[in-house]
Specification:
Number of domains: 3
CATH superfamily of the largest domain: Queuine tRNA-ribosyltransferase-like
Shape: globular
Largest sheet: 8 strands, parallel
Helix content: 25-40%
Number of helices: 25
Distance between the termini: 25 Å
CATH class of the largest domain: Alpha Beta
Radius of gyration: 28 Å
CATH topology of the largest domain: TIM Barrel
CATH architecture of the largest domain: Alpha-Beta Barrel
Number of strands: 28
């Protein structure tokens, strides 16, 4: 069984768990590079674990094997004994030394067997490091050799295996290498990129990651070699990188430099104590800079490591909150090259969209380019489809979709013909009934403060509408109920298409929040039972009873996940659906979509919410595919004000 499990996600980025013989690695995770010689470790691995909570490290099996004294100790005590570290240890094979020095005095078979003997938790194939400037022929030749070594290693390695992904700067070779590595590795290590990071060639790094990411197996942890500077972690995580290795904490310390997510600072330039972490509480940086080099270097290395650990924690928290794009955009302010790299990432929205969640809690604009995130690209594509079947529209300034404004906006003209309104938003002119939807509904940007609509009293809108319609405007009519019906129909059409929306929308009446005026739920008109709940993302999500209506109207297979017979009773009772019990999934769904969970005879079991993209499910052997959000015995109470989704059942 594959050792990697996806627990939560934000687009391609994942919170995961990689099982190893010395305990799990919770990802994204930082693996500090430590020298195998304990006398050359400015920060001991045990100290990293005790004081910083670091659970895994990476060291060089090549160096350990070349030095006779280290080799003897490693073979006798194991790599964990040599390092005095009881957590997971990943070992590298010497490919970087090959890059740095031109050759290594070891063969791929020998170095793999050595890693096996010393008890490495994750052994790495000795690949051929391909320079970014290599020709296509050179890169392809090296790739063939790396592939042969990977297949040889997989046939003999009994534990976890890291298989490098090479191919130079050529997307076709990178994609081929990613596919081959995915068939072999438990960890897929994107290599040959250290020169790109050392030279701040982040647009090229983005193109490499965009070339490999669609092909890399979702069931393996993804490692990006040399991701050492904390300002890069959020950028790498956007592409789903799970493991960062860092020797930068030490290399920069040797030069007298401090690492921060905002960039690099020379300690000799510090005159103010700008950091107040627990290390700086013990000894401020302004004092550290005066220490002799032998004392200063380990202190700076420890500080760099602390900052790096904290930044990985911020990345993890951002994934939990769905704010990783915001974090990456803020971090891109650290260097123009990183901003250029993020711009290159945005140009490849096709790479992100299959795993882009249906919605998030909020959309915060960090810069004007925030409007080019994948979530916006997909939203505007759907708006164009939705708007294509509407008559020419009337334009309003930005108007909240609330009763105090809606009462002044007619849905019919004096002849009874439908009026269609669009309203100005930061993302362009959007049909008014869709403006509570993510990303435009929970959008928070500069325009909200430069031109806040709430500065105008609601009655101001009547003059705007009159100017647009003239004699067709009847200011005595309250149009709120008509807009509630149109919003219900619009949200159903957005998710399920115009034919189904026209058929079922009349069965529901809307319920608005007495505090905010937001549409919060659809109830059945006859029974008053909840049919759909609407969260702060504006998406209408069915209850079990609402799903019963959808189940009867949607074609078989649409908006469905088919559950294996063995799991059907548990899913029906509200238990989560695991990947190995999924028999089929509508390929049009995305993570976060509400889906009908049905058995193999298409009987409705429950309503679920996808954690995974449909194309990922068959390639995973462990973990949750969908959480059950409503089932036959659910009470389906209205969620608390401000909740985005229904709570996951136990």
């Amino acid at each position: 069984m594959a050792p990697f499990e996806i627990l939560e996600r934000d687009g391609l980025a994942r919170l995961g768990r990689l099982a190893t013989p010395h305990g799990p690695i919770e990802t994204p995770a930082l693996l500090p590079v430590v020298h195998p010689d304990p006398d050359r470790q400015p920060v001991a691995p045990a100290e990293m674990r005790r004081r910083l909570g670091i659970r895994a490290v990476i060291t060089s099996a090549y160096i350990a094997g070349r030095i006779p004294a280290l080799r003897a100790r490693a073979e006798q005590e194991g790599i964990h004994g040599l390092l005095a570290f009881d957590g997971p240890v990943m070992t590298d094979s010497g490919a970087f030394q090959q890059h740095a020095y031109g050759s290594v005095e070891v063969g791929p078979e020998e170095v793999l067997e050595f890693q096996e003997r010393i008890g490495s938790d994750i052994s790495t194939v000795l690949d051929i490091f391909t320079e970014p400037a290599a020709t296509h022929e050179e890169a392809e030749t090296a790739l063939r050799t790396t592939g042969e070594r990977g297949r040889w290693a997989r046939a003999r390695r009994t534990g976890l295996l890291a298989v490098p992904v090479q191919g130079g700067s050529y997307p076709d070779l990178r994609a081929r290498s990613a596919a081959e590595a995915s068939d072999l590795g438990d960890v897929l290590a994107v290599g040959g990129v250290v020169p790109l990071m050392e030279q701040y060639r982040f647009p090229e790094l983005a193109r490499v990651l965009a070339a490999v990411r669609p092909t890399l197996s979702p069931g393996a942890a993804i490692h990006l070699f040399g991701t050492g500077h904390p300002m890069v972690f959020a950028f790498a995580a956007l592409f789903g990188v799970d493991l960062f290795d860092s020797s930068a904490y030490l290399k920069f310390a040797r030069r007298g430099d401090l690492l921060f997510p905002e960039g690099t600072v020379a300690v000799d330039d510090l005159r103010e104590n700008t950091c107040h972490c627990f290390l700086c509480a013990e000894q401020p940086l302004t004092q550290v800079r005066t220490l002799p080099p032998r004392e200063r270097e380990p202190r700076l290395a420890f500080h760099n490591l602390l900052v790096s650990v904290e930044e990985v924690a911020r990345v993890r928290q951002a994934i939990r909150e769905g704010t990783l794009w915001e974090l990456a955009e803020r971090r891109a302010g650290a260097h123009p090259a990183l901003r250029a790299g993020l711009a290159s990432a945005r140009e490849r929205s096709d790479v992100f969209l299959p795993c882009e969640p249906e919605s998030r809690r909020a959309f915060r604009e960090v810069e004007s380019e925030s409007r080019r995130r994948p979530a916006v690209v997909r939203f505007l594509q759907k708006v164009r489809v939705y708007s294509a079947v509407r008559e020419p529209t009337h334009l309003l300034p930005r108007v909240p979709l609330r009763p105090e404004y809606l009462r002044f906006v007619p849905t019919l003209d004096s002849k009874g013909s439908e009026l269609h309104w669009v309203t100005a938003t930061p993302l362009g002119a959007i049909p008014l009934e869709l403006t509570d939807l993510y990303p435009v509904g929970p959008y928070l940007g500069e325009e909200d403060y430069a031109h806040p609509s709430h500065h105008h009293p609601p009655g101001w809108l009547s003059s705007v509408v009159f100017a647009e319609l003239g004699r067709d405007f009847d200011e005595d009519t309250d149009w709120t109920d008509a807009w509630t019906s149109r919003q219900i129909a619009g949200l159903l059409e957005w998710q399920y298409g115009p034919e189904l929306a026209a058929k079922i929308a009349p069965r529901f009446r809307g319920e608005r929040s007495p505090r905010t005026g937001r549409l919060r739920a659809f109830r059945f008109s006859d029974s008053g039972e909840f049919a759909f709940h609407v969260g702060t993302d504006g998406v209408a999500r069915p209850t079990f009873r609402g799903a019963g209506v959808l189940h009867g109207e949607l074609p078989v297979g649409h908006h469905r996940v088919v559950v294996d017979d063995d799991a059907a009773p548990f899913v029906k009772a509200g238990r989560s659906l695991f990947v190995h019990f999924v028999r089929a999934c509508d390929p049009a769904m995305v993570p976060g979509s509400s889906v009908l969970l049905v058995d193999r005879s298409d009987r409705l079991l429950a309503v679920g919410r996808l954690l995974l993209a449909p194309h990922e499910i068959p390639r995973l052997s462990r973990g949750v595919a969908a959480w059950v959000t409503s089932h036959e015995r659910s009470q389906d109470l209205l969620p608390a004000e401000g909740e985005t989704t229904l709570s996951k059942d136990a």
